[in-house]
Amino acid sequence: MTGEGIPDLLGMVVKYTQVYLKKKVMQRNTEFQCTVLEVKKITGVGTTIDVVLVNGKLEVGDTIVVAGFNGPIVTKIRALLTPQPMKEMRVKGEYIHHDVLYGAMGIKISAPELDYALAGGELFKADSEDQIDDLCDEISEQMLNFAEKYVNPKLPGVCVQASTLGSLEALLEFLKTSKIPVCSVNIGPIFKKDVMKALKSLVGEKVKKEYATLLAFDVDCDPEAKEFAEENGIKIFEANIIYHLFDMFTEYVAQCKAERKGAKSGAVYPCVLEIIDKNHIFHNC
Length: 285
Fold this sequence. Notes:
Layout: H1 6-20, E1 33-42, E2 46-55, E3 57-59, E4 63-68, E5 71-76, E6 79-82, E7 96-98, E8 100-102, E9 105-110, E10 123-126, H2 129-150, E11 158-162, H3 165-177, E12 182-187, H4 192-196, E13 213-217, H5 223-231, E14 235-239, H6 242-265
Parallel strand pairs: 11-12, 11-13, 13-14
Antiparallel strand pairs: 1-2, 2-9, 3-8, 4-5, 4-10, 6-7, 6-9
């Protein structure tokens, strides 16, 4: 027994099962379950989200609710798209339009107002106005708890940027266990407005240079943002592995502390003197 041909045999079994037993395959768990993977802008289509529909079904015209940068986003599905056969969702090309799709499968959804959707969060389907309100409250509460758990904008800390909500949470959890404070978070590419948030660590009475940093995990950085950071003394650390970010930041913290220590050793501080005997005051002309 060499095992040769087993992958081909399994492939044929899966193929013919999908073709001839399609109507007999049923989902026992009918609870709707869908996750947002990526947010993309497609030429001629607009902003779309790539999702994995695990359970349930989606139809054109369904009302969906997703988490966004500025709060919950409520919108209606304009188009359900899938790639051509034997092609990946990420490969550019013409897509197949569908009126309805069932889980489990990957789907590209086109809908209005998706520009600020968060990748990595759940996608919910609403059937009534009351359900929309409940889902919006649930998403808002989740985002509030998330922010309160990891972020304190009132205290000095680093700024954190990640590609998805899941990767951001993983990075924040690691920073929390490493006792590194965080004052600001965001998802997606780094722009000038994101770098400006780190400026507050360079102003005021207590300047902490090591906190004027932005930890970027698996995201791109706009050239204008890099230029602005260099001009204002803000460090941007980029990496695709959390531990690499941690190593770069801890090394930079040690460097900043060494600079402060060296500056203190050469400083001359004022002092208060008391004259004990006025007869021992001399003045040479």
